[in-house]
Design brief:
This protein has 84 residues and is mostly helical. It has one domain. Helix 1 packs across helix 2 and helix 2 packs across helix 3.
Length: 84
């Protein structure tokens, strides 16, 4: 069980980093067909897409990445006692 919890925690941290990188890349004029951009979109969309349907954009500010990072941190915080 500890192994599975550790894998989930690592996956949460990897997703947090991917969301941060994707958010930072959105500030620059990078081609949407770039391999890195496509990978980050494919990797983070299962988390961000449902949140974007729930949380409206405030003009040009997208709060979905921030909410996703908070949720992932809460998941890691809740699982840490079980990681051994």
């Amino acid at each position: 069980m500890e192994y599975l919890v550790r894998v989930v925690i690592i996956l949460c941290y990897v997703l947090i980093v991917a969301i941060v990188i994707r958010s930072l890349l959105s500030w620059f004029p990078i081609d949407r067909n770039n391999v890195l951009v496509r990978f980050l979109e494919t990797f983070t969309d299962p988390i961000l897409a449902p949140l974007r349907r729930i949380i409206p954009r405030l003009e040009m500010i997208d709060f979905a990445p921030m909410v996703a990072i908070i949720i992932l941190y809460v998941i890691t915080w809740a699982l840490k006692p079980y990681a051994g």
